[in-house]
Amino acid sequence: xxxxxxxxxxxxxxxxxxxxxxxxxxxxxxxxxxxxxxxxxxxxxxxxxxxxxxxxxxxxxxxxxxxxxxxxxxxxxxxxxxxxxxxxxxxxxxxxxxxxxxxxxxxxxxxxxxxxxxxxxxxxxxxxxxxxxxxxxxxxxxxxxxxxxxxxxxxxxxxxxxxxxxxxxxxxxxxxxxxxxxxxxxxxxxxxxxxxxxxxxxxxxxxxxxxxxxxxxxxxxxxxxxxxxxxxxxxxx
Amino acid sequence: xxxxxxxxxxxxxxxxxxxxxxxxxxxxxxxxxxxxxxxxxxxxxxxxxxxxxxxxxxxxxxxxxxxxxxxxxxxxxxxxxxxxxxxxxxxxxxxxxxxxxxxxxxxxxxxxxxxxxxxxxxxxxxxxxxxxxxxxxxxxxxxxxxxxxxxxxxxxxxxxxxxxxxxxxxxxxxxxxxxxxxxxxxxxxxxxxxxxxxxxxxxxxxxxxxxxxxxxxxxxxxxxxxxxxxxxxxxxxxxxxxxxxxxxxxxxxxxxxxxxxxxxxxxxxxxxxxxxxxxxxxxxxxxxxxxxxxxxxxxxxxxxxxxxxxxxxxxxxxxxxxxxxxxxxxxxxxxxxxxxxxxxxxxxxxxxxxxxxxxxxxxxxxxxxxxxxxxxxxxxxxxxxxxxxxxxxxxxxxxxxxxxxxxxxxxxx
Lengths: 237, 413
Ligand SMILES: Nc1ncnc2c1ncn2[C@@H]1O[C@H](COP(=O)(O)OP(=O)(O)O)[C@@H](O)[C@H]1O
Ligand SMILES: [Mg+2]
Fold this sequence. Notes:
The complex is a heterodimer of chains A (237) and B (413).
Chain A: E1 4-17, E2 20-33, E3 37-41, H1 48-55, E4 63-68, E5 71-72, H2 78-87, E6 89-92, H3 104-114, H4 119-132, H5 148-160, E7 166-170, H6 178-193, E8 198-201, H7 205-208, E9 213-218, E10 221-227
Parallel strand pairs in A: 3-8, 3-9, 6-7, 7-8
Antiparallel strand pairs in A: 1-2, 1-4, 4-5, 9-10
Chain B: H1 3-16, H2 18-56, E1 62-66, H3 78-86, E2 90-91, H4 92-101, E3 106-120, E4 123-133, H5 137-141, E5 145-148, H6 153-158, E6 162-166, H7 167-174, E7 183-186, E8 189-197, E9 202-203, E10 206-207, E11 211-215, E12 229-230, E13 232-237, H8 243-257, E14 269-272, H9 273-316, H10 318-326, H11 331-367, H12 376-402, H13 406-411
Parallel strand pairs in B: 4-11, 6-8
Antiparallel strand pairs in B: 1-13, 1-14, 2-12, 3-4, 3-7, 3-13, 5-8, 6-11, 7-8, 9-10
Bound molecules: adenosine-5'-diphosphate and magnesium ion.
């Protein structure tokens, strides 16, 4: 079995804005291996979110091919993509995207509901995930009863609960203050240390130093792709 | 997502928007209320007509030979009315002629009645139905004697001044004291009370127990018709199966006696409980024909309201749909969620409608003479229609929801 989880080959993504064509991605090649911790950087509008949505199977490329764990995702139909999102992908958003009327626990259970896992098992697994992100206490609170950092922890727990092959995060600290951001980055660091493959988007160099590899996008292309020296506090792969 | 969880989810969405949910199910609620109330009242009438009404008329195996219809539903033209007035009355001789020749085993009682005041010791009950009849009348009516006895054929032959009272009349005149042996006046004429009939209750709110029965030869007979003339001859086929044969026989005998040619219409009338039941059958059929239209309109309106509310709901919850899709919900999961929600909403409307419909029917029963009885099929139908309307109304909005693009939906504010 290969260590390559993600392989992108010549991925492009064009949007139509009225009559005008926006070329968000102009041919991206990328490989990500098991237990890598990758930061994607680049100026605003460089295609970071577009590539993350692609990796998360929320979007499909205009051209090019995408393999996830050896399966060619770029050819899959909607239902198969939904299954991949459910089983293989954990996605963390900048705006948390929690269901406001559901408790933290119910939010974390949601992917398991669509995986067809029943009541007790679901609850147990959701509780475990919440404990992993240090939120064992406030499981029955609604999102509006939680702080920003706590909400993002719930979202991370939800992304983890199906034990995905890859954890994707698009500017996960974009809505948080710097102390809280540090906390959230420590959560990602710890998860990576436990063997989780992580890809996160950030435009703050400080945040990117947590990762072991930085991919910089510019105008829809990979501008640079290099390993960063391990930090004193980081855990080596 | 399993069905049960989808219903729980639907209920929580409905609870989250109580007021809007309530408005959206008003249409279904009204339709179902209407369905249940009308069916309950019609059903009540059915039970009433077949049980009580037919009983009050002496059961379905009894008929009256009379000069003209006493009770009519529907249109009576001026010409018909005039023709009825010209008909010869039924006489004691007609009755004797028929009674002597009918071969079907049957009971007979001549009947001649009026409305009169009945008095006792200064108390006077007015507007009392006075029946002057033969002794078999009690058997034909299937009346039980609660106190004392009925009169005998000998007393009829002798023209005894005796009377049997209806239960409520006895209560009114005697106020708990023993009526048997006392003398009451009927239209001023003294009659000795020999019995009281067990109470029958009411029919369409009218007491069935305000009457006095005397032999057809008693002094009270003078209050009813000219000598020899009677209102009708009551005939009861002993075996209900022979009722049509008895009707046939009596008709033929009367036609022969009156010398009617085969093509001449009869100048007498045979009244059966079945006639009244048939009349009622016509009315209830009309109600049942009108019902689907009225219920249908409410349900269609209700369905359109629900569809619009669901479409609004899909727009409002676009982000929720995006989140669910991002986490692995397939199009059909989202579709099912919204269809189940719509069906649950509509079903809730139907359930409330069943409750208010029953409430309405029983309020009508309590406050008016109209009866009401629950028809289980109508409840089943209401539940089925409720769910159906919800599913049909939910399909289009649910399809819209299921087709949303996850990224666009997540970006929705
Ligand atoms: N739905 C869309 N329709 C049209 N253009 C889009 C859409 N989404 C993104 N774009 C364009 O694609 C480019 C890349 O966007 P994005 O991936 O969001 O950049 P980033 O996340 O790096 O800021 C931008 O020019 C943006 O305007
Ligand atoms: Mg972005």
